[in-house]
Amino acid sequence: MASAGHIASSHHRRLLDTGPGKGADNSSSPSPDATRIMVGVLVTVICCTLLYCIYCWRWRKRNAIRRSLIQRLGPRSSSDLPLIDLISILAATENFAEAKKLGEGGFGPVYRGVLSGGSEIAVKRLSARSRQGSAEFRNEVELIAKLQHRNLVRLLGWCAEHDEKLLVYEYLPNRSLDAFLFDPIKSVQLGWSTRHNVILGIARGLLYLHEDSLLKVVHRDLKASNVLLDDKMNPKISDFGMAKIFEEESGGGINMGCVVGTYGYMAPELALEGVFSVKSDVFSFGVLLLEILSGQRNGALYLEEHDQSLIRGAWKLWIQDDAAEFMDPSLGRSYSRDEAWRCYHVGLLCVQGNPDVRPTMSSVLHMLISDHMELPAPDRPPLFTRHNSIPFPAMPLSVRTESRVSPPHSINDVTITTIEPR
Asked: pTM score, two decimals?
């Protein structure tokens, strides 16, 4: 009996040694590896939840913007600009086939298409996630629907379905002016009469925008690639994504606090201060006119070869009374000297540094078509070289370099833009 009691007492002590308290302590103490795994899983779940919430928020915001855009533009689509359904555009472009692609600019590719009725169209497909592309899309649809002129490209319709934002234009078979003007082979197709007609057509289109339309519009991105040519080589100004309605009656500029346009075509007050007006368009027209006369681009390549801008080269030959050296060699001597010299003179008047002394587009057109009007002497144009006395603005700007393909829309050498509400 004593032995049995001793065994029971020993067993009781062992139970006390491994009792509930000590057993619980051992089982509730996780290993360091288990702790790390639990923390990792928890962090992963939290991160995934946050990412999902952000995705849902952006998706809802993007769809809200699209719905507001359709609601905003919907009422005018029935009267001013047709709303074309996405299925028709997909059928016309063979689902945006690569073979139908005409080129690509800063805001998306352009495709050639044929509607069911046989009409040829050019479809500009904007990036669904580009804030600036969305702003340009909205601006162009709202603005160009109100503009009708023989020297402005016609916007036939628009589409905003799902994530697609599409602009449908008339198709112009000869594409853009720069495809001919700066090509050593194609430039021979631009004889003097054609070039003179292009200059006058662009001037009439700008005059309409500045003075004759219901809205006073500043284009802000006039350049050779934004001038399209129809089958008869008549010019049509295109790409109104950066255009602004100009409501000032005093004739002064508007300071937007940002730089929008293409280097080489920008007026100094726009490049340095962000101030635009109808006179900044006049400056761009002057640069374009000089490009048409010379067959050379006022861009980085010309700076590298001549260490000066095209307009400075034009001024140098002007004061040397050697304007014939400025003319495109592909013209030979087959041009009207009086018309060419008058265009040359008007071009230098348009690119004067002071916007107050630049002519208006009505004066420009009058000077171009008048044989007897005496023209004032031009002032020295501003410097735009790497050795600028007037430096290019030192401010944070986004620079977009675009494709060299020649589509029927904007192709920039270097376009400087700042995203802004329109």
From this structure: 0.71
